[in-house]
Each structure stands twice: as C-alpha cells, then as structure tokens.
Design the sequence.
C-alpha cells in the first residue's frame, strides 16, 4: 500500500482500467506526449478500493464509533482471511500522521496494543486525492469510554489492577522496548478487543501528531500548556502521566474535569498539583492510590516508570510520592486582581494575563520579588538581562519587543514549560509538527519565524537546569533552521524547515499535495501525473518541491538547485531541468512523457540563450523528439551541450568581429569620396598616358614597317 | 650643370643635329603642343606632357617616315612643314591627346564609384545575413578615431547607438 499509484484498483465489478499507453504511442508530431491515462475517478457512492490486492475498504461504510479525532473509520474485508475483523482509519489531510511509528508497528502483534495490520498511501475517492490509510484489527468490544464526557462502569477495586493496569502496562512495556511513545493514552482511546469486554488494549497512536488529540487533563503540565500541535513527541514519562490520568478516570468511572476550561485545569494543576486536580472532590480507590500518585507526579524525575508499576503489580509497596511543594514567598506579588506567593503559578498567570504581564516586568517588581523573596539572584539576573536586551531593540518594534520580553521572562520563570508567546505555545521537540500542521492548515507562520529569528529557542535551551543530549541537539538544529529561514531563495525558507524537521512530511506543493509524495523517488512520477491537469506555464519545481528536494536529497541536487536560483532566466531554467534530470537519472523512472512535455514547453529561455538563430530553430525542432522519449537527462544534455555552447559563443564573437569589419569597410567606402577623386585623377592620367604612348608606339612601328615593306 | 658638361653635350649634339637637321626642323614645328603641354602641366606631373606628346608624335610619325625613307633633306622638311594637311595631322593628334588627358580621370572616377556602391551593397547584405543568423546583438557600429575623439570632447557617447539603424533588421527578427 505504500507504493500508492499501483495500489489503487477499481471495484472488481467495474470495467478494468485501460492499459497504460506505451511510449511509442505518443503522436510523433505533437510535443505534448500522452501520459498513461488516469483511472476513472471513483464515485463516493457504492465504491470501494482494494489495496495490496487484499484489503477491500468500503468508502460508504463508515464506522463513526471508531473514528479518531483526525481519522475516519471505514469497514474493511480481508480477501485472504475472510471474516477477519478489520477496520481502516483514513487520516485527514491536514494532519501529519506518525509514519515512523507506523513503519515499526506494522504487522507487530503487541499484546494489549491495537494491532496495526497494514498502512499505506492510496487514492481515496471521497477525498479525490491520496490519503494515508491505516488498517487495524477491529476491537469487537468497542471503546472503553465512548468519549471523555462518558462514564465507565467501575471495575471492582480488587480486579482493577489485574484487568486494567496489568494488561495496559504490558502494552506500554512492549512499546517502550520498541522505542515508541504512545502519546494518545486516554480513556476514549482504549478498546476491548472481545465482545465480552475483557481484553483491554491501547488504541491508535499514529493518525495524528504526538499528543495532538490529548485533552489537557491527561497531559503533563508542560505538555498541556503547549498548543496541541506543538506538544512534541515527548517521552515515556509523558506516557506514564497519561496512563496515570487515564487509570484515575477509569477508577473513578468518569473524568472529573469534563467541562472545565483548559486554562482552569492548568491553573489548578500548577497550583495544587495534578493528582489533586484530577481527583477533585472524589476519592480514588485506596488499592490503586499509590500507583496513581506515582504516575501523576508532576516532577518527571519523581514520576513512576514502567518498572515501578511492574514492582507494584508484583506486590512490592513503594514509598508514596509526596508532591514537592513550591517555595513560597513571604510577600505576595500582585498581578491584576490576584496575588501569588510562588513562581510557577505566577508565571502561568502572566501567560494568561499577557497584556498585564508587562507592567510587573517593566517596573522591576518581578526582579525585586525574585531577589528578595526567593533570594534567587540567578533568575532575577536573567530577567534583568532580558529587560536590557529588550530595551536595546528599536522603539518602532515596541509591541513586538514586549512580546519577546514576556516570552523570555516566562522561559526564565518556568524553564520546563513550552515557549509561549501569545497564542503560540510550543515545546522544542514539537516545533516541527506544529509548523507542518500550521502549513497544512494555512495558518499564519509569523510566530514560527519569530520563534527562530528572535532566538527564543536559544533562550529556552539556555534556561534548562539540566540539559539532556536531545536538547543539546536542538541547538544545532535550530541554528540550521535560522540559516534556512534567512535564505529566501527556492529550496530554503520556512518550507525547508518543515521538511528538515518532519522526516515523513509529504510534499505540500499545490502541484503534488493530492498525491501524497513522501519520498524523493515519488516526486517525478507525481509531477508526471500532475502534468495532465496543472497550468504547464508554471514551473514543475516550486518552493515546496525545491525545499523537499533540498531536505531529502541535498547531496544529489545541491548544485542544480543553486543553479535554479540564478538571476539569469536561462540559467535558472536549465537549473530546473537539470534538477529534474538528475533525479530521474538517479532514481528513475525511465520515461516521463507528461513531465518531459511540460518541461519541454518551458525551455524558451534556454533556447533563446543560444545566439545562433539556426541553432535555435534546430533546438525547437528537436525538443519534441526528446519529449517523446520522456528522458529529461537526454533533453538536458542536448540543450546544455558544452561543445555546442562554446561553438555558439565563438561563432557569435566571430560574427560580431565580421560585422564590425564590414561596418568599417562601409564607412570607409562612404566617407572616402575625396580620396577616391584624387586617386581617380591620378589613375586616369596614368591610364591616359599609357594609352597615348601605346598609340604612339603602334603608329611609329606601323609607319616604319609600311615604308620598309 | 657644370659648364664643362654643357660644352660636352653641345659638342655631341651639334654634329648629330647637323646630321638630322631635316628631322629637327619637322619636329620643332610639329611638337609645339607637346612643349606647351609639358610647360602647362609641369606642376601636376608629366602625364599631360606624355599623353599629348605621345599622340602628337603619333600624328607626326607618317611624315617623319616619309622624310626618312624618301629623302632626308631640308627641302623635304620644309615641304612637310608648309603642308596644311601635315599641320592638321600634328595638331589634331595633339588635341586628341589633350582630350584623353582630360577625360580619363573622370572615367576612372565613375568606374571606382560604381565599384564602391556594389561593394557597400554586398557588405550590407552580409551584415543582414549576420543579423539574421546571430540576432541584433551582433551589431557593432564602427566609429572612426576622430569621431570618437569628437564625441569624447562633446560628451556625446551615444552616437554609436544612434547609428545602429544603418542595417535594418529583417522583419520577424527579434
């Protein structure tokens, strides 16, 4: 299914697709070669697609009960194993799925994790484009909780560990061993595989970005503060927290925070801690209290790992986790109508009351509060340094500078929290997915550019008390991104950032988006296919295609892409052709009729770069021959033949010299009248004299001979 | 010329002159136009004298031949120089010489002008071919040194561009 184009078949009862047009079938005189005919568009009613010659997915038979927030569920039948319960999730096109995780999970039967049978990209008739489709083993018992607002029939305490905690933790252990974070553990993403509802499994985790669909209640404070798209891949501690929150909700039979706004949930978590927030007025079962407290510890270092659960399940009682209390100030700091005695709640309040935050920073209250009440000179100095930097910015950028200053102060006050600047809230490891989603949804990208250009990432890394190896890597990554963003030529810019950060992001070019191209070798066939429908006056390489190639295939196309950015149109055009040619030459396919025809029609500037008009006519005449072959490398070699170029240049210089010499001769002839009369006079007199002497000689000889003879 | 040399030439010329007196008599009358031509055209080279002299001599030739082969006597010479017909021949031939001398420069000038026109046409045709083959960028207008100097002095550097229309690009050419 991963090889998309060949996967799509029409329904068996329909007429078979027409055979692909052979290369030779292209009409000889028409340069626009005929690409393989497109399959008839499938109708949304009564259609199905067959993938891998095995799985029949019914476009009309949706299963709303198994829908995911970013994927729609459909019925599937397996031709090889009739009766096997399966269903397919068709991922929405504005969401980058976790392809890396899919590749690992495909075919693996991990106990207590929903079995991902297969996945791939295929033409999806209802969307009239290619989509990622994931086929799962169908859970016959349905969801554990239909939604976060639903209730769950409580399981007796003595069975809770055995029936819920143990199987799910086994699934988590396996995922941990595979190096995959689930990041979608929540009550409404757990299923019972059997109709008797005894076999519980973790649900789908690949149809959206990590943590994207998680409600704030089941996410750790730091992750919950980030915008859904910017939560990042996270780590196993985040999974443990979500597991703990899910267990707590299942043990209570409901989510106590349903209907509570996200900001309020976060405020409570920051103020009183996660466990207290999630439990609310309820009482957690004593049997699992220790486990829940361990899993919901807000300090990741104190949070239970999977080993702790295994030990706990084995009967070993562990020291109960006591939440580390925040250091309290003797004197509170006021923000708006609220007073705060500790730093983290204050920093969250600053974020929530963004427009008021500047007052406490600008008048120095915050700095003094940090120095006097917490004796935290390091933090106070960092705030002071941020203020000084902000003052150094031009006054014209005052509003922007204030936003950056607040963001920097928030980083200093709460280094574990995501970088926050108004509505933009992103963890460092979530920046890539957030950027991809924003680009797919055509959201404003300015905050992303500001995040990089204003060095917020650098301040976030510098503020970390303990720098992990991963965070150290981010420094280099973001430094590179800054360079890409600075360079606005094709192949760089924000487009390159998105492809560099998201290994499996499909090419978002409007020319190719519907064909879901994730790998370089798919680019040319997709462009070939696109040639049928797009405006062929446009270049086949736009900013997205160039950035995609630069990010995925820089080694092979670096020089060609550089040449494509040349100011001279003819060099840029030949650069575009050479980029496509080298990709075809190295990665195939052998013939690209549609694309060759498209590119051939754009070669005007290259043809005109030859001075010799006869050569131009020859090129125009010959291009259709190469188009009919569908080989871009041959077309490139023909158009940019160095010997021909040299010959043309030399010929042109020779012609200029000849023209100039002729002009000089004409000038001399036109302006040499006086000289000519003089020389004509002289020549005429000479000629007259010669003639006269000749006449005299002949006369003398004649007279003498007549007398003698 | 030194006096001794003049004497030497006189000593040689006198006996010879005495021997050819009849010829000298005829020639002294017949070659008057030649002498006039040499005197008149001496500043323009000797082509006038040569042309007139040659034809003058050609007109004299039949009478000289008669004199030499029918009796080289002073009487015969006087007979020739007193003949109106002889005079007509001598001076008529000289007049033809004058005519040739006067007409040939104009003839040659016209011929040269005709040749230059054809050459210019050929050169322009070649230039047009070059423009058709290589495009208008091939045009470089020749500018003589003195025009360049003039332009440099007057600060007008655009004459070469202004002259570009000398060779019109064929229709349809960029």
Sequence:
């Amino acid at each position: 299914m991963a090889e998309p184009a060949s996967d799509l078949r029409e329904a068996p009862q329909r007429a078979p697709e027409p055979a692909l047009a052979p290369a030779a079938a292209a009409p000889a005189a028409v340069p626009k070669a005929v690409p393989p005919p497109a399959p008839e568009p499938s109708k949304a009613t009564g259609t199905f697609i067959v993938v891998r010659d095995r799985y029949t997915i019914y476009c009309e038979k949706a299963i709303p009960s198994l829908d995911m927030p970013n994927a729609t569920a459909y019925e599937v039948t397996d031709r090889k194993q009739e009766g096997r319960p399966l269903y397919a999730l068709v991922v929405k096109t504005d969401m980058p799925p976790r392809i890396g995780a899919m590749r690992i999970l495909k075919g693996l039967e991990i106990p207590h994790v929903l079995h991902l049978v297969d996945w791939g990209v295929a033409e999806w008739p209802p969307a009239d484009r290619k989509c990622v489709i994931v086929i799962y083993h169908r859970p016959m018992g349905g969801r554990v909780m239909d939604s976060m607002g639903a209730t769950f029939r409580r399981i007796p305490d003595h069975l809770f560990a055995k029936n819920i905690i143990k199987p799910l933790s086994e699934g988590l252990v396996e995922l941990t061993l595979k190096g995959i974070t689930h990041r979608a553990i929540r009550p409404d993403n757990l299923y019972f595989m059997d109709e008797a509802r005894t076999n519980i499994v973790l649900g789908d985790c690949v149809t959206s970005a990590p943590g994207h669909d998680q409600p704030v209640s089941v996410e750790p404070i730091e992750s919950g503060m980030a915008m859904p798209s910017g939560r990042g891949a996270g780590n196993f501690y985040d999974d443990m927290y979500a597991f703990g929150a899910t267990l707590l909700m299942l043990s209570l039979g409901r989510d106590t925070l349903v209907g509570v706004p996200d900001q309020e949930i976060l405020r409570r978590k920051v103020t009183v801690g996660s466990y207290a927030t999630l439990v609310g007025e309820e009482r957690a079962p004593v049997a699992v209290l220790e486990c829940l407290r361990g899993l919901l510890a807000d300090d990741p270092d104190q949070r239970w790992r999977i080993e702790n659960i295994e030990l706990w399940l084995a009967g070993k009682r562990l020291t109960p986790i006591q939440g580390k209390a925040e250091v309290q100030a003797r004197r509170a700091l006021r923000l708006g109508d609220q007073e705060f005695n500790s730093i983290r709640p204050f920093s969250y309040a600053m974020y929530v009351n963004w427009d008021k935050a500047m007052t406490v920073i600008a008048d120095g209250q915050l700095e003094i509060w940090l120095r006097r009440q917490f004796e935290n000179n390091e933090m106070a100095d960092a705030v002071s340094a941020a203020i000084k930097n902000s003052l150094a910015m031009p006054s014209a950028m005052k509003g922007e500078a204030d936003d950056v200053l607040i963001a920097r102060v928030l980083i200093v006050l709460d280094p574990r929290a995501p970088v926050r600047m108004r509505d933009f809230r992103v963890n460092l490891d979530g920046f890539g997915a957030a950027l991809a989603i924003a680009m797919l949804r055509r959201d404003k990208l300015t905050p992303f550019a500001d995040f990089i250009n204003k060095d917020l990432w650098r301040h976030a890394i510098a503020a970390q008390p303990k720098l992990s190896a991963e965070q150290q890597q981010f420094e280099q990554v973001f430094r590179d991104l800054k360079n890409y963003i600075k360079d606005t030529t094709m192949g760089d810019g924000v487009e390159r950032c998105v492809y560099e950060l998201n290994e499996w992001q499909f090419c978002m070019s409007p020319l190719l988006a519907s064909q879901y191209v994730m790998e370089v070798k798919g680019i040319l066939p997709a462009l070939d296919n696109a040639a049928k429908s797009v405006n062929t006056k446009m270049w086949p390489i736009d900013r997205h295609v160039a950035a995609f190639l630069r990010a995925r295939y820089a080694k092979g196309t670096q020089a060609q892409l550089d040449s494509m950015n040349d100011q001279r149109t003819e060099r840029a055009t030949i650069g575009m052709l050479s980029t496509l040619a080298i990709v075809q030459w190295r990665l195939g396919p052998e013939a690209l009729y549609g694309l060759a025809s498209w590119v051939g029609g754009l070669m005007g500037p290259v043809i005109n770069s030859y001075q010799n008009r006869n050569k131009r006519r020859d090129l125009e005449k010959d291009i259709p021959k190469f188009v009919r072959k569908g080989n871009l490398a041959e077309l490139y070699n023909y158009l940019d033949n160095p010997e021909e170029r040299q010959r043309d240049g030399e010929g042109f210089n020779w012609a200029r010299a000849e023209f100039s010499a002729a002009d000089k001769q004409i000038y001399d002839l036109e302006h040499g009248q006086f000289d000519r009369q003089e020389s004509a006079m002289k020549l005429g007199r000479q000629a007259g004299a010669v003639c006269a002497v000749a006449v005299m000689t002949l006369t003398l000889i004649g007279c003498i001979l007549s007398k003698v003879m | 010329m030194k006096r001794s040399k003049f004497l030497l030439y006189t000593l040689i010329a006198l006996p010879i002159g005495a021997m050819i007196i009849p010829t000298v008599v005829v020639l002294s009358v017949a070659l008057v136009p030649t002498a006039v031509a040499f005197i008149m055209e001496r500043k323009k080279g000797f082509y006038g004298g040569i042309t007139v002299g040659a034809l003058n001599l050609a007109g004299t030739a039949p009478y000289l031949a008669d004199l030499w082969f029918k009796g080289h006597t002073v009487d015969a010479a006087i007979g020739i120089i007193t003949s109106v017909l002889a005079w007509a021949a001598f001076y008529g031939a000289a007049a033809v010489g004058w005519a040739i001398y006067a007409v040939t420069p104009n003839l040659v000038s016209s011929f040269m002008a005709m040749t230059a026109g054809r050459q210019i046409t050929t050169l322009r045709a070649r230039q047009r071919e070059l423009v058709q083959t290589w495009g208008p960028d091939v045009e470089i207008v020749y500018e003589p040194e003195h025009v360049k100097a003039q332009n440099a002095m007057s600060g007008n550097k655009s004459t070469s561009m202004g002259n570009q229309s000398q060779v019109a690009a064929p229709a349809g050419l960029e």
User: Anything to note?
Assistant: Residues 84-134 of chain B form the longest helix (51 residues). Confidence is low (pLDDT under 50) at residues 157-174 of chain B. Chain B touches chain A through 53 residues (CB under 8 Å).
